[in-house]
Each structure stands twice: as structure tokens, then as C-alpha cells.
Amino acid sequence: MSSTPSLRRRNGVLALSAAALVTTFLLYLLFHDSPLYPLDKVDLTLRFPTLSSAFRSSSTLPWTRPILPDYCSPGSPEDFWSTRYTEENLSMARSYSGSGTRFRHLVEKAMRGEPVKMGVIGGSVSRGRNSGTLGPYHQRIFRFWNTTFFPHPENWLADGSRPATGSSYFSMCWGEHIPQDVELVFVELSINDYRTTEAASIWETLVRSLLELPTKPTVIAINSFALHGRNGIRNPTLPYLLANPALEASLFGSENGIDPKHINDVGHQMVADFTTHWMRDEICRVMSERDVPPGSVRKVEDNWWTEPIDLGAVPHLRMTEQWRKVNDTIPSLHPTCKSTSSRPPLQPSKGEEWYFEEAPGDKFYWSASKPGAKITFGLDIAEGRVGMFFLRSRKQWLGNVKCWLDDNVKASKLVEGWWNKDESVSDYVALWSNVASGKHNLTCEVQTTTKDPGGGHAFKIIGLATV
């Protein structure tokens, strides 16, 4: 017990010594002007004993299930699609859904807060004829995307639609109407395209050229419905029209009665809803795939179906081709196009009795109707092919032209404007395929011969394409 006071004195001395040492060190740090400190290489980190896991806080926050949008919940008030149309009709509205791979990549981009660039390739339906005050289907889709799915001030939509225009024109000239950095493209050409193998091949050329863009865009084919037999949203609507033909007025009624080729406000809303419903499914799929704890692994059977493969790649095989070697590739076309709706529009180098026509319905032509009238355009040909877009109709007093390159009148080609079909649409004719590369002049002359029963000689040029 007698040693306790001396022990206390010794501890006190030690404490004072430690305090003096710390004070001296602090004064040294404050006033010493050398960049080198004597304790620079001494680890002064405080370390505590490792606690038992039962008492230690986790180094990561616990996983919480993300909240999905209400429109992902079937039967919720936000799931208006199923209550408005029924699931059966929504399924019938999809001819082919595809893998959705490219669109889901786009969804992931939008979820990161980035804007999305959209474009439209289509005919008069996409142009908005008979669509009402809310505009055509694509404007409605865009508004829904920008208010419900992924609002962003820099989202935009480029409308490249042209009335009375089909795949034959757009397969060569789509670049004149929408920018090449689009990430989502709506293609609506079912009213102006025929159900032939040739027309399908031309449509595929258009879609392939879009899919091959560096942005790897999503392409959504939207097929409208007309009373003269084209398909599209016909799948879900036809049974109801057959059961109640009076529904014609609900889908095709206009200020001038029934418009058999152009859906009205109701039809445009249907197209928009069917499209956003498919989008909804893919968006909710992306969000649901994130709805699992980190590190979870989905078990799949080990076979060739489950091997990684890019389902968004452009197939080597075209729809109409037979099986080919896996390494074979289809060469991409790189056409140069100029049309009357390009910016700036197609201009002739000279013309005799031809004029630029601005027809009703946002249609533009280089037109002439007097036999002997000539028009010449300058061309720059790269790979040897030349073609022309022109109007075909049996209602507009159309005749024929002869066209030739440079001064080679003997090798001229006859192009006929009149045909015995109901549609008045843009058509394409391949004029030559082995032209020497370089600059040339294309001249066309209105002929005295015509197939028009009324003796019409008019001809309407829409554009030129070279490859």
C-alpha cells in the first residue's frame, strides 16, 4: 500500500512528459519552415480491434427492392391498355415482337437520364391526314414517352414522312428526311406498299439500311389499316368491323365522309396505344431484371440456346434468300438521292416547259404535260446505277417520257406514268446499271404516246437516285 503514492507520482510525471512532447510536436509543425517533417514516414493511423460480426455494422447498405412504375402493375389504373382493349386484342395487334434487344438498350440509356432521338418514315397516314387535332400516331407516342416513360427536354422526333410515298422511294432516299443519328425509327408504309415479293425485298432494303446505322437504332414497323384490304391493325379490328360494319365511320370517318385509306383520330390513337403497350412491356422487363438482389445468378440450362449471341445484329441472310455460308455478307448500298422534297429540293440544270408543282397534300413534282418538253439534271455517279422516282396513277392524265444519259439518245429508256391501279403513289424505275463513274447529264422528254385512256401526257418527276 505504501508504494501507491510513488506510483501515482510516476504516472503523473509520465503524463506531463507526454503532454510536453505533444505540445512540442505541434509547435514544430506550426513554425518549422522545412517541407520535411520527422514523422513523415511514421504510420500514425489508429487501429481498433476487429469486432465480432454480430456487433459490426455491414460495409454495404442492405439491398432494397426498387419500386417499379405503377403502369408495370397489371390491372392498376395506369395500366389503361388492358382495360381499354383487352389482352387478347393487344396480343393480336402484334404481328412480330422480335427480341426487343435494341429497344432495351435504348431504355437503359433513357434510364441513365440521357435523351432519345426518334424518327419517322411513312406515307400520308404518318403525315397526319385525317388524324384530328391530336396529330398522327407518332406525335402521340412521343408525347407519351416524354411525359410518362422518360421525360427529357432534349428528346426529339424528326418527321420524315411523305404522302403518296412507299418503300421504293425511302429505301434509297430516307437520308434526305431524317438524320442519321436517330436511335428509334417508326416505319409506316403498309398503305403504299404492295404485297409482292419484290415490294417486300425493297422494304427489307430500307429496314436493313436503318439497322446498319452506327447508332444501332430500334426500328418499329407500324402497319396501318385501310378498307381496301391492306393489313396491320386490321388483325384486332377486322373481327369487330365484320360483326358491325357501321364501325367504318368510327375508324375512317372524316369531314368528307368515309376515307377508305386513312384512319382517323380513333385509329391513330389505337396505333399509338398498341405501340406504347409494347414499349411498356419492354421497359418493365428492363426494370424488373434489376429487381433482384446484387450477385444473384439466374440458372439456365447449358445448351446452344443459352450461349451468348447478339440478337440485335442484322442477319446475314435476307428474307427471300436461300441458306448461305455463315461468313457471307450482304454489301450495303450507299445511294445518293435528291428529290423534290429534299432540302434544298432537286433542281434541273435546264428545262423547257417543265415547272415545279406544289400539289395539294404536301406533294411536290417537276411536271410537264406538253409532248416535246425536255428537262435535264446533272448527276454524279459512283457505282454505275441510275434510277428515277415518279408518280404513277390512273387518275391524273399521265403519259410517258423517254430518258437518256448525256447525248446517247439511242440508249433512251421509256418510263410510263399511267397504270391501271387505284393507288396514286411514288414508283421507282432503275434506268441503267453499268454507267461509267463520274459526272453525267440525265435528260427526259415528254412523248406523244400514252396509255392514258383520256389521252393525257402529263409526267411528274419526284426524285433521282444514283449508286
Automatic annotation (TrEMBL):
This is SGNH hydrolase. The lineage of its organism: Eukaryota, Fungi, Dikarya, Basidiomycota, Agaricomycotina. The keyword Transmembrane applies. Keywords: Membrane, Transmembrane, Transmembrane helix. The chain crosses the membrane at residues 12-31.
